[in-house]
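Format notes (please read before filing issues)

Several people have asked whether sequences and structure tokens are stored in separate files. They are not. Every record keeps both together, in the order shown below: the sequence lines, then the token lines. Line labels are part of the format and must not be stripped during preprocessing.
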Amino acid sequence: MRSEAWIGLLGADPRPRLLEADEPSARLITLTELLDRPADDPDVVVARRQLLADPGTAELMARLPEWEAEQLISGHNSPRYAPNLLHLLADMGVAPGDDPRIERLLDDMLRHQGSDGRFAAFGRWRGVEEPVWASLLCDHHAIVEALVRFGRAADPRVRSAIARMREDLTTTRQGPGWPCLPDPAMRFRGPGRIEDLCPQVTLEALRTFARLPPRARPEGAADAAGTALRVWTARGSETPYMFGHGIRFKTVKWPTFWYDVYWVLDTLTRYPPLWRSPGAKRGERRAVAELAACLIAYNVAPDGTVTPRSCYRGFESFSFGQKKRPSPFATARVCAVLRRLDDLTDQIAAVDVLALGSSRAGTGIPLPPKLPRPSPSSSRSTPGRGASSAQGAAAR
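Then the structure lines:
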């Protein structure tokens, strides 16, 4: 029987409550990712049917844009960005072939691929008056992952795109990974130093390769996962531009579209050799434990549930789009990540989150319930959530 030691990190086992939730996505995640029920399990079949019939799922489906006439977005973390909506639906449990609107959107995405293998999106670019089709890696990687998640990995165009991702893996100032590369036509590269790793596109690439058979992954994928973890361990001295590790990093913004503690762990827990293999580095194992401890201390309540403390606008009708009560979906997603770290439970419980150094301008102090967010100059003696370790914070 599989160990469930991770539950000891929380104040209570949230799974019985999740199975009774009125949110079919939470029930489906619990059955498949927290209880290992197979796809043909009767309860799983019912939960999937209810998910597809749920008004919330229908609302998100209706938001899917026409890719070839997509409205301009404010950024790659925008809730209106089509790959983000697709990833949210997939996180909820929507699968390939579940809805023709998804299939049409994927077909449209496949039609916009450059000769270099990168998929493009429609947007405004610095120095160009009119919006055009072009691609940064935060377009290309997000699109490829969405295509893979919804069953298009065997398409020759996707295989070509994946090959390009392998070729783009390089040595950055932080180590093996993916930098912010310019669009071949627009030459716009994005922010940050040219020799630096881009944490977001590196995680997107690692997430994509984790969903593929091992033979499809580049030889340096595991090393790139270690580099992504190094961004955390070096946070006090080498913070990449726009990617800090203070209060906003540790407090998950729901739904999860961008770089934060959940995103890092949801990606890197797909590479268990970071902490599990005989050759795992002690520093990397410690870093994974620190991140997990922060995920718990900053986001999980004493009863093992997650009530969002930060949300994107436009999702107020969903449990993950409000800050007043526990979200079954957010709780299930956080638990799914923690369960992958079951064999690291003791190390996670031993982490003193209040003793962790933070990145420049961060605080390192968990937010107390119903109290204002501390400013960057707040004293580190502030009592936080009333516990000095992740285990204590969860059980207070």
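For reference, the curators noted about this record: Residues 11 and 291 are 18 Å apart (CA to CA). The chain has a mean pLDDT of 86.
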